[in-house]
Records
---
Amino acid sequence: MIRKFFSRVFGRKLPGRAGEPAVIPHARHGIRREAISSGSRRVVETLQDGGYEAFIVGGAVRDLLAGIRPKDFDVATDATPEQVRQCFRRARIIGRRFQIVHVMMGAETIEVTTFRGHHVQRDGPRAQTDDQGRVLRDNVFGSRKEDAARRDFTVNALYYDPVTETVIDYHQGLADLGRKTLRMIGDPATRYREDPVRMLRAVRLAAKLDFSIDADTLQPIGELADLVENIPLSRLFDEMLKLLTSGHSLECLRQLRAEGLHRGLLPFLDVTVEEPQGRRFVTLALESTDRRVREGRPISPGFLFATLLWNEVLNQWDALKAGGERPIPALYQAMDEVLDAQAEKLAITRRIVGDIKDIWALQPRFELRSGKRPYGLLEQPRFKAGLDFLLMRAESGEVDAALGQWWQDFLDADGETRAAMLLQRAPDAEKKRRRHKRKSIPATEAASVEFPSSAESSESAACP
Ligand code: ATP
Ligand code: MG
């Protein structure tokens, strides 16, 4: 009965008992050759002209079949990385855990992967694993069939040949696509142990595709969630960034929490989303990020992580101020403490940490609306991101909405109006400010931060 259904819907050859793949013609899968990027098509054609097998694989085929525009087009081939490199003028081999070739075609960079074999082979090389079964290095090449078996989900193991316009399907991926189901190839628990990132991928891809996770695929996640702790920090960061910028970050985080997968990732998120104020802020930030991604507008990872961690900065900052620390040094200390604690769980790249700090450090400066300060702030390279952050704080109710409005008006105003908008400084505050200025500030701090004077920082009661 099922085999009959397959032959009618998906093509002549079935994913048969002998392990033969289904070969699905264009009439059944409907992928248009033109939907494939010209660069990746040329890479496939060049490799096939060189006598090798080559296909578009993975997410691109899945997305096209699901009616989503793919982010990128990866190619898989039976040529070794060295053979691939020799087929192209502009190509280089990269990677350690997985060696891949980057082929440059005009403005496109195409990732070309050699078919991978089984991790464990009776004779021949073995993939290295750690004591939990996690695969450390895996450059064992294999056949197309083996390559399909070591991909994660059935819908990710489809091979499209743009020359013959056929899709090759070993694991009934097309049927799972039709059922909108994410199903792990092989034994799910073993596959998660080999690579715990697959648990995060299950959550992310289900949210992105609006698929459900097959019951057997979902079941072991709760039990194995702690293995996320074994993922190398840089890989974890890449995956979290993909998740947060998937256009479905709210849904992803909801699902991560439901599966107990969030604990190792963003240590403060739990506390943050349990406080109504924090939840409102994080929700606003994620909604805005999802909206931007869906509209195809750029998003800034620094801004995103700054929002996710802000509530914790506020908590630490308050605690330090309550302990007698002056507001600005207290803010800097709180920032460092939060980022240090985060770094143990998730290696946010140095550049992004720099962006996060810039955005946070600007926040108290928005309180200063007298004299030359507002003009100086407008000139800051991260002013726009800082202001967007402030507006989000205002929207969540953490700071006075009038403060955000003042800055928006100030930004739009002409010179005369701006001058009229400036707040007046109290005369005794001015004296204090001069006295304070004469105190020496350590050179490094003075270069990186403009410390507002104590008089100015008390200018607005809304200062957090
Ligand atoms: P997207 O690009 O939308 O994030 P993707 O599935 O294309 O999703 P990539 O990281 O680009 O994700 O991976 C490309 C392909 O490589 C996948 O479709 C899958 O076949 C395979 N793959 C990726 N990560 C894993 C993994 N951890 N385990 C097994 N196979 C994987
Ligand atoms: Mg991809």
---
Amino acid sequence: MTTILDGKQTANDLMVTLKAEVAQLIARGVTPGLAVVLVGDDPASAIYVRNKQRRAEKLGIRSVKHTLPADTDQATLLATIAALNADASIDGILVQLPLPPQIDEAAVIAAIAPDKDVDGFHAVNVGRLWTNTPGVVASTPLGIMALLDHYGIAVAGKHAVIVGRSNIVGRPMAGLLLNHDATVTITHSKTPDLFALTRQADLLVVATGQPEFITADAVKPGAVVIDVGMDRNAAGKLVGDVDFASVAPVAGAITPVPGGVGPMTIAALMMQTVTLAKRRLQ
Ligand code: NAP
């Protein structure tokens, strides 16, 4: 029987614990603060920001939104970040990506104080991940680790194959899995004979942005399949990077889309915000 890895339910369970932690922090005089910076009026970004803010507020986290016009220049955005870096009531700063073309995304990420970099994209935090030292880790891979943990799926000694090498999913996923003693293969669009590798995976993490790219013949029977994708198919329906209908009967466990990795990403973001806020007590 295939296990459906229910990210929605798992995230809700985590929220109960987190809400209690936030209440304890508030009782000790620390209200966790999350600043979200949105530049421009991209509708998808606006929805992501709204979801993150709603979730934060439900937990008792103070969420502050800075909305800047699409023609904002780099200096103005950097000044906003500098003010948030200096604000002791803010524990986490999140700049919603993508940014408009006149803005240098790398410079913006570099400007966020590493210890407030709640997305874990700053080079200091990436370095901490790859040296296996404590730091902030990107929310999507962290949420996936929390989901695996919730279902008691150990990764040590497993062969994990990751499809995709983005800075927000594939690379940090590889770092986390390696730190948890998996044997990791990272694949991408230039990988020859990709499916020969995916078929060797005990744990297959797919983050390509290609709708229903992985079908049953690319999966080892019994494998744990994590579908990060959030894509629209030709009919406009929300689907993952994995063809759920054909892969689910073959896999040992699989995440659905929606309701798998997506809710865990937001949960992980909240976990990181709370972790950062706890540092104020030290
Ligand atoms: P991305 O930056 O576009 O990276 C995609 C990666 O997939 C690249 O490394 C690319 O290889 C690789 N790739 C693309 N086509 C491929 C192919 N045919 N064969 C092998 N590799 C291929 O995307 P991303 O930001 O990582 O996002 C990936 C997907 O996850 C998207 O659907 C996105 O919406 C979704 N996502 C979901 C969440 C969530 O919370 N659920 C969070 C983040 C992203 P190259 O490097 O060689 O180009």
